[in-house]
């Protein structure tokens, strides 16, 4: 048999399915589609990309509705959307293949890249939301927590807004640890009665594209109205205990837009000094699978529709300037360790804030380090 | 279907190119189609069973596979025997070029030998993993029926899927 003709036809659909199902890389399936139009027809009609995606990421089943019915994800920015069923199938297929490839194969606990804002803050910046990124409730001698403003009415809730490390993330759990005031009589724990979570994207698309901006003032201004929340979770009761409480979403949720809001409902603890109710949180963690680097989305409109993007060149905003920080005094090395950890998240906003606080005279030192040879300490101030 | 005498019953199979193979009953029963045939015809005569879709080359490969795996299974299932079986499978597959691999799959499919088929399917998938579209076309003997524009469009829409592909060196 020199030319056995079309393999898929010869073996029949079941056998061919079995062979193609042994492929465990979505890229292989996409390439198979390009072999011939009948092969693409076969792959599309049998939903092989979706099957593979479900195999690699079982949680995606909870998101199928978003993909297939709500049509919130476009595989590519299309000017007009062809409504034919075949086009729909093809579009869904590309989305599944993309997600199978683009979402992190492992669940990460560090999906937060930035703290954006809190609905209120008692003492800024000592009790700002940025402290909730730190797992410890104290750093050296200083307590690390966020505190709301005091209220007479215990029913007043608060919100904290975080930016995730990617604009799309499959979120499975959120962890919140209330703060126990170890320096107050009776060691009160300032938890809330319950928590609830929302996910979404910035209201104005321009806001999305600016990664810089004055994050220092932003963080304690109420920014909630700047976002459109496309998902709201059920309420979870919070216990008044100083522990990292884990809130597992009933089903994994695809956060489209990269922003998550923690709503703290109701207060339970009065501060003895002033008789007001406060909420204080020492740590927040978001657990899920963000997009891998090189994969991204672009928000298209206010309904939460987005287009998938692939960036062949990695846009790297990490500093390669460890040389310039060495040989400095303790303040620099503390800065370097602290920033290095944050830099791994690639957040330029944070860099700027730290630099402005610690080294007011020399922003050029760190920013230009990748282009210039390592600077000597004397040149740096 | 036990035999009165202690002699192992042999079954004769005739291939497409008119070659006859005599195999132990146990081996022939590994072939789902043969087994079904005998289940439905318990009084079948000793005539050779025709297999018009299987060449002698394929059949001898398949017979070797079944013989070896029967022997493996006869041992206690330990990890070393499993490794041996795996190594045997890998060698068998390696010895096949793409054409023969396809033939063997079709034969195994026709003869309904589940274990071998699963193994072969995985082997085919492994052969096309991370290969370029052209390689896969050649492997399966498929004609490209996309226009250059269509092909370019699909590539552009799924750019990420066409990165890091193995170079075609065959």
Question: Could you walk me through the main structural features you see in this protein, from its secondary elements to its overall organization?
Answer:
The complex is a heterodimer of chains A (about 375) and B (about 170). With about 375 residues, chain A is an alpha+beta fold. Chain A has helices spanning about 5-20, 25-35, 35-45, 50-55, 65-70, 85-100, 205-210, 215-220, 320-325, 330-345, 350-360, 365, 375-380; strands at about 75, 110-120, 140, 140-145, 145, 160-165, 170-180, 190-200, 225-230, 235, 245-255, 260-265, 270, 275-280, 280-290, 295-300, 305-310. In chain A, strands 2, 6, 8, 9, 10 and 12 form a six-stranded antiparallel beta sheet that branches. A four-stranded antiparallel beta sheet of chain A has the order 5-15-7-11, with no helix packed on it. Chain A is elongated. Chain A starts with 6 loop residues before the first helix and ends with a helix. Chain B is built from eight helices and three strands, in the order ββααβαααααα. Chain B starts with 9 loop residues before the first strand and ends in a 13-residue tail after the last helix. The model of chain B is unreliable at about 1-5 (pLDDT under 50). Chain B is about 55% helix and about 5% strand. With about 170 residues, chain B is mainly alpha-helical. Chain B has helices spanning about 25-30, 30-40, 55-75, 80-95, 100-110, 115-130, 135-140, 150-155, and strands at about 10-15, 20-25, 50. Classes of the chains: A alpha+beta (about 375), B mainly alpha (about 170). At the A-B interface, α1, α2, α3 and α6 of A face α5, α6, α7 and α8 of B.
């Amino acid at each position: 048999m020199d030319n056995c003709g079309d393999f898929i036809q010869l073996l029949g659909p079941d056998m061919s399915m079995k062979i193609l199902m042994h492929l465990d890389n979505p890229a292989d399936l996409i390439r198979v589609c390009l072999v011939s139009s009948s092969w693409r027809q076969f792959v599309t009609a049998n939903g092989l990309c979706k099957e593979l995606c479900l195999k690699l990421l079982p949680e995606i089943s909870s998101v199928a509705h978003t993909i297939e019915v709500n049509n919130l994800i476009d595989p590519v920015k299309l000017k007009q959307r062809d409504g034919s069923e075949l086009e729909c199938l093809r579009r869904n297929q590309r989305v599944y293949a993309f997600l199978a490839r683009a979402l992190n194969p492992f669940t990460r606990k560090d999906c937060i890249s930035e703290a954006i804002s809190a609905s209120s803050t008692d003492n800024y910046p000592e009790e700002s939301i940025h402290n909730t990124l730190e797992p410890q409730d104290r750093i050296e001698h200083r307590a690390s927590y966020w505190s709301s403003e005091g209220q007479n009415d215990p029913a007043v809730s608060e919100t904290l807004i975080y930016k995730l490390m990617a604009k799309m993330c499959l979120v499975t759990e959120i962890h919140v640890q209330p703060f126990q005031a170890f320096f107050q009589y009776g060691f009160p724990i300032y938890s809330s009665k319950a928590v609830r979570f929302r996910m979404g994207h910035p209201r104005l698309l321009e806001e999305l594209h600016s990664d810089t901006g004055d994050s220092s003032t932003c963080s304690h201004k109420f920014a909630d109205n700047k976002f459109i929340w496309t998902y709201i979770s059920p309420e979870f009761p919070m216990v008044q205990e100083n522990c990292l409480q884990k809130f597992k979403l009933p089903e994994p949720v695809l956060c489209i837009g990269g922003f998550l809001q923690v709503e703290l409902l109701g207060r339970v603890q009065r501060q003895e000094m002033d008789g007001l109710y406060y909420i204080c949180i020492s740590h927040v963690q978001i657990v899920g699978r963000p997009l891998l680097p090189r994969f991204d989305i672009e928000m298209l409109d206010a309904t939460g529709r987005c287009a998938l993007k692939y960036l062949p060149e990695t846009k790297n905003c990490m500093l390669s300037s460890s040389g310039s920080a060495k040989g400095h005094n303790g303040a620099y090395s503390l800065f370097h360790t602290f920033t290095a950890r944050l830099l791994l998240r690639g957040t330029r906003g944070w860099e700027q804030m730290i630099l402005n606080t610690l080294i007011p005279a020399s922003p050029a030192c760190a920013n230009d380090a990748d282009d210039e040879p390592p600077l000597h300490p004397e040149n740096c101030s | 279907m036990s035999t009165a005498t202690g002699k192992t019953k042999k079954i004769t199979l005739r291939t497409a190119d008119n070659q006859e193979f005599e195999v132990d009953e146990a081996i022939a029963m590994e072939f789902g189609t043969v087994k079904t045939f005998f289940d439905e015809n318990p009084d079948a005569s000793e005539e050779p069973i025709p297999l018009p879709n299987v060449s002698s080359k394929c059949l001898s490969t398949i017979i070797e596979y079944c013989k070896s795996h029967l022997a493996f299974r006869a041992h206690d299932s330990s990890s070393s025997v499993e490794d041996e079986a795996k190594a045997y499978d890998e060698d068998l597959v390696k010895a096949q070029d793409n054409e023969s691999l396809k033939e063997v799959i079709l034969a195994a499919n026709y003869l309904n030998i589940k274990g071998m088929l699963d193994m072969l399917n995985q082997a085919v998938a492994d052969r096309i993993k991370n290969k370029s579209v052209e390689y896969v076309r050649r492997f399966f003997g498929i004609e490209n029926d996309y226009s250059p524009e269509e092909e370019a469009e699909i590539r552009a829409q799924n750019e990420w899927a066409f990165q890091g592909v193995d170079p075609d060196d065959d």
